[in-house]
Specification:
It comes from Moorella mulderi DSM 14980. The protein is α/β, with parallel strands linked by helices. The protein is built from eleven helices and 13 strands.
């Protein structure tokens, strides 16, 4: 009987994702037993500051990656939207599970939609990406910083009397909060974060045994889509620095990638798309980045960096 140690953040959603990986691996490999190891990351410890102001890459991954490099764990389970576009030397993404709904969802206790929210309604989100796109569609809204895991944000919505909050649909569905009144925000209004809805398993490069094990959970269409999105983000700015959204869809071997770059106030939103192939998804990401840079994305990115924005989530 082989035992492997699976690393995860401590949040309810992170543990759900890790348990999904464990159950899938143990079903695929009957002689395998997995032990869950949870760690608290910097992003979990600093909850009273918006992510955009902390200014550090790997906020939700660094501690897990150090544990992986030190041999404390054999693999780390992450939300792909938390993963910096460049990994530490010696680590690779070994597999990605099938993606859940990548959309953002607006949740309102009163059942409001984005279109029916009252003028100057208070909407909770700390994501610069969401804020910029929401401000572009509804510049009248008051966008309130909101951090914490899914249950914490839902509790704050009630406690602070917010008219709505915006969350990733994937997390809401995985934690069975689908019973909440919610409206998926259409992609033409709000593109998701790079990798949103996808679970990734990070492993040590060259660890052939673990690589073979985690291959059982890999979903090739999800992997191709997220690779294209990450290449797009990397070509634009190399990390989680600005309001950037992207979504790749795969049908057979064909891939279509949409992308967005916005100013912090949402007054400027550049959008475009490109087509590519699952055989080389990075090429589509690089091509889309070139198209948006040619339309003036660099000037927007420079201004955002000067103002200190750094969360694409």
């Amino acid at each position: 009987m082989l035992e492997v140690k699976v690393g995860s953040r401590e949040s309810e959603l992170a543990r759900w994702q890790a348990r999904w990986v464990i159950e899938t691996l143990e079903k695929a490999w009957p002689d395998l037993t997995c032990r869950l190891v949870t760690l608290k990351t910097k992003g979990d410890k600093i909850l009273d500051v918006a992510l955009a102001r902390i200014g550090d890459k790997g906020l939700f991954t660094k501690e897990l990656e150090l544990a992986l490099l030190d041999g404390v764990i054999d693999m780390a389970v992450h939300s792909m939207k938390d993963m910096p576009t460049s990994l530490p030397e010696g680590l690779i993404i070994g597999a990605m599970g099938q993606r859940e709904d990548p959309a953002d969802v607006l949740i309102s206790p009163a059942g409001y939609t984005l279109a029916t929210l009252p003028v100057k309604a208070r909407v909770g989100t700390s994501s610069l990406r969401r804020k910029a796109q929401l401000a572009n569609v509804r510049p009248d809204l008051e966008l309130v910083d909101l951090r914490g895991n899914v249950p914490t944000r839902l509790a704050k919505m009630e406690r602070e009397g917010l008219e709505a909050i915006v969350l990733a649909a994937a997390g809401v569905k995985r934690l069975n909060h689908g019973r909440l009144l919610g409206e998926p925000i259409p992609y033409h209004l709000c593109l998701p974060a790079v990798g949103q809805g996808a679970i990734g398993v990070e492993i040590r490069a060259g660890d052939e045994q673990i690589a073979q094990l985690v291959a059982a959970i890999n979903h090739p269409p999800t992997t191709a889509a997220v690779r294209a999105e990450r290449a797009y983000l990397r070509a634009l700015e190399g990390g989680c620095q600005v309001p950037i959204g992207a979504l790749a869809t795969v049908e057979g071997e064909a891939l279509v990638l949409q992308g967005m770059v916005a100013s912090l106030d949402g007054r400027q939103v550049l959008r475009d798309f490109t087509s590519g192939s699952t055989a080389n998804p990075e090429a589509a990401g690089q091509e889309l980045a070139r198209k948006l840079l040619a339309q003036g994305a660099e000037a927007i990115l420079q201004e955002v960096r000067l103002k200190g924005g750094n969360s694409h989530r």
